[in-house]
């Protein structure tokens, strides 16, 4: 994918000195270093345009430059292929992605200049911090892809950051991040810009990720989402439509006879029983449980006065709200409801309100106020 002149530049910038001060001329008495030349440029002495077309295969599709690249030139990436930078680079002219992908395989892959992602993909593939020494600018048709395997995996921008387009987060090695984790640091964001979309891979299917933009960072807001639908899903912002059963703590209380519960209780069953698509739980004595029930799986469930297992929002007699997922299990931590709002449930399952949680403020209805 390099033309004749570019190949000469690679040989020139990776050549070995002759060892004689008066004869150190890479075009004369210098020695070629073909091993180093195989790993790309040693310096950008002028602006370098690299056009790689993935459809041609081979190094056009993907190549890695492992050398430490110096110089004052700019790296301009075009075409659909992928160029990986793995050296301790110090080139100062910046990096311009006009097509395809540039992958940072070292903390200083982008040298000391700015990075402009005009119409391509910037991939971070480093364990730990990756540093952009100047500005980072991303346009609408571009993607920033971050590989996150620990809390130390951060993209740090020393200058101004301008966000747009897609942010893709790849959570590797089964890593589950916590809410409030910083993934991008920057010196300033003068335009208060935002990514237009976010895509995640590697998390459990019920995990939902949102972004919080602070003055100098982008942080994660992590929660779970119940994918079930129906009238059980009522938001705390509409409390009058949610269940209010004056929650009982006596899980062995016999329910009021209502036909269905009578039938279950007289069948001699124990444990979880399903009737007409609804779930009930019977004690070892065969009586129908109501109120809060801690099952053998260690999770808490709520059964109303008829013994029916509830899902969605439930309000206790003291006014506290709890959220039960589509399986009926009580939830804790951040939860994104079907109304699109985020709510925080403490370790006892109670919905918090009118306070800061992990740096995020939840209002009087419990919803996170962005």
TrEMBL record:
Transferase found in the keyword field: no
InterPro entries in UniProt: Autotrns_rpt, Cell_wall/Cho-bd_repeat
Biased composition (Polar residues): 245-259
PROSITE patterns in the cross-refs: CW
Ranges annotated as biased composition (Low complexity): 224-244
First and last residue of the signal peptide: none
Protein name: Phospholipid phosphatase
Source organism: Clostridium beijerinckii
Native organism taxonomy: Bacteria, Bacillati, Bacillota, Clostridia, Eubacteriales
């Amino acid at each position: 994918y390099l033309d004749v002149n570019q190949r000469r530049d690679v040989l020139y910038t990776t050549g070995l000195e002759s060892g004689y001060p008066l004869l150190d001329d890479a075009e004369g008495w210098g020695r070629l270093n073909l091993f180093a030349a195989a790993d790309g440029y040693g310096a950008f002495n002028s602006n370098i345009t690299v056009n790689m077309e993935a459809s041609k295969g081979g190094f056009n599709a993907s190549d890695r430059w492992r050398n430490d690249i110096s110089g004052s030139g700019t790296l301009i990436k075009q075409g659909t292929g992928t160029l990986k930078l793995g050296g301790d680079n110090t080139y100062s002219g910046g990096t311009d992605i006009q097509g395809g992908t540039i992958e940072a395989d070292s903390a200083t892959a982008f040298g000391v200049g700015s990075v402009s992602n005009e119409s391509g993909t910037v991939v971070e593939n480093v364990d730990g911090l990756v540093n952009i020494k100047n500005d980072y600018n991303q346009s609408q048709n571009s993607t920033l892809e971050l590989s996150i395997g620990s809390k130390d995996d951060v993209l740090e921008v020393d200058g101004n950051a301008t966000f747009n387009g897609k942010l893709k987060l790849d959570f590797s090695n089964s890593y589950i991040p916590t809410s409030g984790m910083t993934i991008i640091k920057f010196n300033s964001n003068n335009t208060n810009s935002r990514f237009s979309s976010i895509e995640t891979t590697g998390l459990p299917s019920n995990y939902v990720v949102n972004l919080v933009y602070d003055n100098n960072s982008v942080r994660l807001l992590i929660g779970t989402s119940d994918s079930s639908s129906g009238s059980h899903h009522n938001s705390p912002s509409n409390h009058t439509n949610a269940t209010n059963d004056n929650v009982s703590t006596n899980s062995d209380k016999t329910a009021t006879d209502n036909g269905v519960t009578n039938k279950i209780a007289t069948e001699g069953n124990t444990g979880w029983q399903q009737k007409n698509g609804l779930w009930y739980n019977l004690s070892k004595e065969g009586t129908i449980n109501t109120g809060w029930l801690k099952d053998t799986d260690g999770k808490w469930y709520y059964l109303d006065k008829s013994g029916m297992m509830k899902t969605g929002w439930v309000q206790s007699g003291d006014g506290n709200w709890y959220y039960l997922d589509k399986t009926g299990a009580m939830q804790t931590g951040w939860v994104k409801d079907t109304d699109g709002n985020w709510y925080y449930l403490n370790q006892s399952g109670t919905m918090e309100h009118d306070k800061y949680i992990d740096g995020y403020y939840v209002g009087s209805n419990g919803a996170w106020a962005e």
